[in-house]
């Protein structure tokens, strides 16, 4: 009855855990939910009635112009014609998968990587080529060997405040990746939902801005800086890819909500927007620091981690071999939710890692949750 690809359809563990984590007494470190109190008020006052009509598939001209200007400011020389407005950057991953992936197509991803990207690429039959990740970025020696041997059609990378690891690639790594991708003519999919959430100094120069010949797509979103429920995001791509992406977008949903685009444009161009971003960074930095202190207190003998310079997550590796997936039910019983490491790997493995989100819980609940989680893990490790 179903298409052949449905045999590869996976559920999203995040969404399943999130459903459990919605219970009010649960302390949730599981999702990547922005804090509701940090979200700007969406103001529809003055929205033209004409936006109730169907609109252009590529997105509203004024929003594309504002996004192109922002991309140029961060070093990516983009024109409005290079911008496609998306219904969430998740949609961009779907369009890219449709553009590039057939059954068995080699696709490079970081290990670990964003699990919803794995879900999306595997549906279309991707054969994953995993490159190991260090706090400075991918293992470059391994990356070069894999590019040479596996010839992936594209590489999906999250260079700035990676999800789940929180790492930020350093400048030399970014430059080297651009050189390698030009040499091997690999398409770069650069996903940057967290780039504005920077708490410490680190290099954030988009890799696509350093490419000379390799094709590229860069994804951005308003989900983490404004409101995820609006589902407004964008891609900026190499001119060679735009006609295909435009038609794929048209086939997928005609266009992104015009009202949502209008509200995001109003926010993006408001004189208060830079101050909003500053407040947001300040607000999350306090939470990041609170979780770092709680981890020092309760996890120092249990796990290793790097304090993330930005983004929304800590990535912990237990000092002993263990399966954090098997520990999740015990933590949920004690009303603490976290994401085990296992689903962040494109090829199945047992993982002694866990991802902890710090943006959603209050400061008190961060301390309480980390304390309880350490108790659960200590007991499980015997
Ligand atoms: C790496 C990464 N890419 C994409 C997304 C999806 O963002 P959006 O809300 O724009 O679909 C997320 C959200 O958590 C993410 O972490």
Automatic annotation (TrEMBL):
Its cofactor is pyridoxal 5'-phosphate. Residues 37-371 form the Aminotransferase class I/classII large domain. Keywords: Aminotransferase, Pyridoxal phosphate, Transferase. CDD domains: AAT_like. It comes from the Bacteria. It comes from Chitinimonas lacunae. InterPro entries: Aminotransferase_I/II_large (IPR004839), Class-I_PLP-dep_aminotransf (IPR050859), PyrdxlP-dep_Trfase (IPR015424), PyrdxlP-dep_Trfase_major (IPR015421), PyrdxlP-dep_Trfase_small (IPR015422). The lineage of its organism: Bacteria, Pseudomonadati, Pseudomonadota, Betaproteobacteria, Neisseriales. GO terms for molecular function: transaminase activity. This is Putative 8-amino-7-oxononanoate synthase. The keyword Transferase applies.
